[in-house]
Structure formats: C-alpha cells, structure tokens
Design brief:
Number of helices: 3
Largest sheet: 7 strands, antiparallel
Helix content: 10-25%
Strand content: 25-35%
Shape: globular
Order of helices and strands: HEEEEEEEHEEHEEE
Structural class: mainly beta
C-alpha cells in the first residue's frame, strides 16, 4: 500500500502519499486561537473542478445504495458556488445533498460558504482543484469528517491539507450515518494572503467518509 501511495504521489502531483514522507499530521498540531467573532470574506469562484478528463478515484465503483442516505441525494445536481453569509444553521453545505448544518460555533455564523459536491469526495487525483480568489487576506476554513483521520492514517494524507491547523471547533449536520455514529466535522484553518486559493481533492473512502466543508472569514477586518 505504501508503494502504491508513493506512486500516486508521483503520478498525480503529490495529492496523496504515505505518512512517512510527511511532516507530522496536520490534525495533531496545537489549536490556533481565533477571534470570538469573524466577518464574512469576499471570495470569487475562479474555476470549478475540471471533470472532462478521467480522474483517479478511491473505490471508483462506489454507488449510493444505503437506504438511510438515498432520500438526501439530490438527483438534479447543482454545481459549486459561493454563498455570501451562507454559513449558518440550516445551511446546505453540499450542492448534491439535502443535508443541513445543525450545530455551528457562534464565531462562524454568517461567514462566506463555498458549496461543494459530496459526489466528489472520493477523488484522489492532484489535478482536481477548486480555485478561489480573495482581494484581502482571509481565514480559509476546512471542516473535515472526523472519520477521515482514520482514513488518512491508513491511506495517506492529501498534501495540500498539511497547510491547515486545528481550531478545536466542531460542526454537526443531519447526515444520518454521522448522527448514528456520534461524529461531526472538525474545523481547520489556513490564513491566505490576497490572490488565488486552490483546494485539492478530499481523498475520502466513499463508504465511510463525507466530503469536506469550506467557508471563509476576513483575516483583517475592513476599515470602517
């Protein structure tokens, strides 16, 4: 398995690779302090993932067959989009699922949401990218299904995620499988300078993990 992951790293630009080639796992770092309240960031969606070419997948034959999940699947899938002030209780983080956020730390309420696609969670290909642009510095938040940490420990960590640091916060949704297991999304942050921001593949095991959530707040509040 380690040799396979090393090969994938070479072929797909380092998207997924073995733990021994990496710095300590990003989720093991000390939590970074954040302000008690953040302001929404102004983001632009520059480019959606290019799916016109075949991308490497974790379990490419996976299909949604769980009867507890099927009612939440949106058949006519929407696409990636920016939702200003969209990070609130009741928000839908995925364009292709009906799941909503049920618990959200107050500091994140009203931040800018980037709606993503659950169906892309098992992409491991380094050519996958969500390209954003920010005119000012931003705190970019990545909320990861806490079950993913086990997947990363076994299969390798997407290298782009190593730029993130824990916040110590957790978000919950009404995903029935996550609720049944008592798990949520662990929140990580990366402070980005003005310019382009690229989010890479999730690398999730589609049988057991969820896609990540994305949202952003201002790193330097605008002068009034």
């Amino acid at each position: 398995m380690r040799n396979l992951l090393a090969l994938l790293a070479l072929v797909f630009g380092g998207a997924v690779h073995a733990a021994e080639f990496e710095a300590p796992a990003f989720w093991k770092r000390p939590a970074v302090p954040l302000p008690a309240k953040l302001l929404p960031a102004k983001l632009e969606l520059v480019a959606k993932p290019n799916l016109t070419r075949a991308l490497a997948l974790f379990d490419p034959d996976h299909k949604v067959t769980n009867p507890a999940v099927e009612p939440f699947v949106v058949k006519a899938e929407e696409d990636y989009r920016i939702v200003p002030a969209g990070m609130v209780k009741g928000a839908k983080p995925f364009a292709d699922r009906k799941y909503v956020i049920t618990e959200l730390p107050a500091k994140f309420d009203g931040l800018t949401q980037v709606q993503v696609r659950m169906s892309h969670k098992n992409i491991v290909d380094g050519r996958f990218g969500i390209v954003l642009s920010a005119a000012r510095p931003v705190h970019l938040f990545l909320a990861i299904d806490q079950r993913m940490l086990g997947t990363f420990s076994q299969q390798g960590v997407p290298s782009w995620m190593q730029e993130f640091t824990p916040t110590g916060d957790r978000i919950l949704s009404d995903d029935p499988l996550m609720k049944a297991q008592g798990v949520g999304y662990l929140v990580f942050v990366r402070t980005c300078p003005p310019g382009r921001i690229v989010l890479g593949p999730c690398g999730a095991d589609p049988k057991f993990n969820s896609m990540y959530l994305v949202f952003a707040g201002e790193a330097e509040p605008s002068a009034k």
